[in-house]
Amino acid sequence: MENNYICTINDLLIDTALVIDEYSCPICNQILYKSEIYQCKEGYWNCKECWLDLILEGEQRKDCKCLIQSINDLSRSKFIENKFLNQKINCPFSFSYIKKDFQYRNGEEDSIPLIKDKENGCKDIITIEELDTHLKQCPFKFVECPNKKNGCEIQFRFNKLETLKNHETICDSRVEKCKHCLEIIIYRELKDHEDQCIKTLMKCNGCNGDIERGKMNKHLNDQCPNEIIDCTFKRNGCFDQMKRMELSQHLSNSKHMLFISNSIEKQQIQIQDFKRKYLKLKRKIQEINHENINNKIYENDWIIKNFTKSKKKIGSFFLGPEFKIGSFEFGLSLYPYGRTDTFENHLVIALFEKSGLYKSVTVESDFTLISKDSENNKNYFFENEIQPKKWYCNRMIKFEKIKQNGFLINDLLHIKFKFEVSNWVLTTFETDG
Q1: Predicted TM-score (pTM) of this structure
Q2: Taking a C-beta distance cutoff of 8 angstroms, is the pair 99, 148 a contact?
Q3: How far apart are CA 396 and CA 399, in angstroms?
Q4: Is residue 118 exposed (0-12), middle (13-18) or buried (19+ Cβ within 10 Å)?
Q5: What's the burial of 351, exposed, middle or buried (CB within 10 Å: 0-12/13-18/19+)?
Q6: Residue 186: helix, strand or coil by DSSP?
Q7: Which one, of 345, 266, 331, lies nearest residue 302 by Cα?
Q8: Phi and psi (nearest 5°) for 318?
Q9: Per-residue model confidence (pLDDT) at position 1
């Protein structure tokens, strides 16, 4: 039943020897099935393919005296074609398990026997001309199992579809849902799938609960009350083991306070060691950065929009640019009405050093308020010895004079600024031993 032999027209002929002798092309010796026959004026005939080969190669038939240069020099031989089509043949479905495609079999394939199915096969004798029509309506034709795409090679006669339906219910290439994960699986592979399916329920050896295979490891590692586990303080010196459900009672034992104390002491020692290493590294970074400072000056422009429409209270401020000079990190702020504690109703510029890597640094700052008329530009110079994490405020012009002196253009205040650092002192890091 697994064999599916190719059936050719030669296998179907009733009088095989006669037909092959009279209706084979004289040149290629192939039987004339599905071929067009052409003949010359002298009556010599070949299949069309052989005539075209002769014309292409510029050759002639040795027994024909006609000059043939084109297929148009020949005529179609309907007489021979029709005689061939009237030859008697068996229905292809008189054999057991054949393919529906009909072709010539040459060489070794000729040795493959086709077996007549005398009990279940078609008994009709037809002509070659009737073959195509008969194949479409023959009640003995073969029907493939619907599960062929899954590997089933079994065929059934069309007139025995009930047998096919019965086969479908037991075919090992049918598909079924896994009862655990509902995935569609080919039946012959179902057992192997279920043996590995992550949704299959398994008995936990510890608590006898039903657990999905894919969740068993998590259950044993985190949940099973009867699983034997180590004490939480194993790393701290307690090597006792107990069932998970007994862990709380075990931890209530006062000896764990000693473990906790020892652990804290070790961690404090480690923290101090890490801190010393960190401060040493940080100090080294400071020294390297300052060895590489090439430019101790920074300058830029600060443009503040909507200057009079916001920040109308004492203590309100505009947050300015942040910038670096070497390892120094500076921030600027501008108070239009002064700070609450100093320089009320004056512009106050505030400077802040953020890095905290230095004990002190001298900063020379140069601020220029830009006017509509450049001749009215207002310059301010300040020098501050700055300590880390502190604001340093410097008073500038009164707020009321800003607009009067042309420093506001479309409510926009433009400040040019320049900073230069010198005389810095690195912070000395101290830590407990």
Answers
A1: 0.41
A2: no
A3: 9
A4: exposed
A5: buried
A6: strand
A7: 331
A8: -100, 125
A9: 31
